[in-house]
Amino acid sequence: MAGRLYKRGSIWWGWYYQDGQRTCASTRCQDKRAAEAVLREWERRAADPNYAAAHSTTLGEALGRLLIDRANKGRSEATISCYRSKAGHLFRLFGHGTTLAAVNACRVDDYVNTRLSEGAARHTVHKELVTLRGTLKVAKRRGEFPGDIQAVMPDGFSSGYKPCERKLTLEEAKRLLAAIPADRAAHVAFIIATGAR
Q1: How deeply is 43 buried, as exposed, middle or buried, from its count of CB atoms within 10 A (0-12, 13-18, 19+)?
Q2: H/E element, 7
Q3: So what's the pLDDT on residue 138?
Q4: What are phi and psi of 158, to 5 degrees?
Q5: Which of 12, 15, 10, 122 is nearest to 1 (CA)?
């Protein structure tokens, strides 16, 4: 059954059904067309749990879930700390309370442009985008992000990463091999000896 609008004074109120229960609320609108748009939004959220989740789950909540997800997968504290650090810039520029429904390609492009204009290294911005992509993937799996992650994220953003070309000295290699478990040391020794990747 569709909802209905009615007036109380100069303000339009509406009722609609959610989980079989009739819900009444003020649209806070004096204009009937605006009130109708509010009522349609309420009905859509009531009818589609994924739509409702995307419009109520904040980026801050989703980033928190990414950290929990990575911890549950056994990622190291250093990795989780890196995600937490990169999330700080996402909070700052998107806003902690931004809903996932508001995260779109234009907002992500603006984020990249702002970070680069602030002087952030491309490699740093790439890591921040990895954090955002991971956040959206976790949210997508939970039904909290309805969008297409590939369409939201920049296409072909280059990190500008240049691998280190310095080689370990013999003394550094000995110290490294002594500091790691024997089974890993055997692999590392092979890589050092052969230059394998």
Answers
A1: middle
A2: strand 4-8
A3: 95
A4: -90, 130
A5: 15
- 12-49 pLDDT, tens per residue? 898 877 777 888 889 888 999 998 888 887 787 777 76
The 10s digit of each residue's pLDDT in 46-63 is 777 666 666 778 899 999
Tokens of 156: 């072909």
Tokens of residue 97, six digits: 């309370």
Collapse the DSSP code of 154 into the 3-class scheme (helix H, G, I; strand E, B; otherwise coil) and give the result: coil
Distance CA 135, CA 75 (A): 15
Between CA 132 and CA 140 the distance in angstroms is 12
Quick count: other Cβ atoms within 10 Å of Cβ 44?
13
Contacts of 195 (CB under 8 A, 6+ apart): none
This prediction's pTM: 0.62
Contact call for residues 80 and 53 (beta carbons, < 8 A) = no
Asked if 128 contacts 89 with a C-beta cutoff of 8 angstroms, the reply is yes
Quickly count: other Cβ atoms within 10 Å of residue 92's Cβ: 12
Residues 20 and 131: their CA atoms lie apart, in Å, by 39
